[in-house]
Amino acid sequence: MRKSKVTAIILAMAMAVSLFTIPASAENFTAADALAVLKHVVGIQLLSPEQMTKYGFTDEEAVTSADALSILKTVVGTTDIADDPEPMISGGWSEFRDLTEEDLAVFEEAMADLDGVVYEPISVSTQIVAGMNYRFLCNATVVYPDAETVEKYVTVYKDLEGNVEITEIVDAE
Under a CB-based contact definition with an 8 Å cutoff, are residues 82 and 22 in contact? Predict the structure, then answer.
């Protein structure tokens, strides 16, 4: 695969992951530019400057954002993500949404050793950090007869190695 195509793929990843808005007419993105965008929005440096040199990425390998949008459309099926007028801010929380199987697996792993209260997740919001924060809106019921159910936020952190931990349980606002 040509390095310019890899550069476009990296830029497309940044656009998809972050809802990062780049005008379709923008030109001359190098691999370093694309990686800088991805580092800005995800907080992870995928390749060091030394690795960039080692793998032969140069400024001559520049691509346009249209290249990246083309790849994004091929992979995701739309470029609407990249054209969002109000992109998600890196480090900001997403809107609450329905749970996916992956979200539920993270929740269940985090809650496995918790006793005394039954937490039923209703929806989730996520935050990209060095890993991922999940904020689950849950119905919580203390385990005793006729207990009242209340809404709680359960925040779970999943690190880059896949380890999960509960970081906070608070009353829903």
Answer: yes
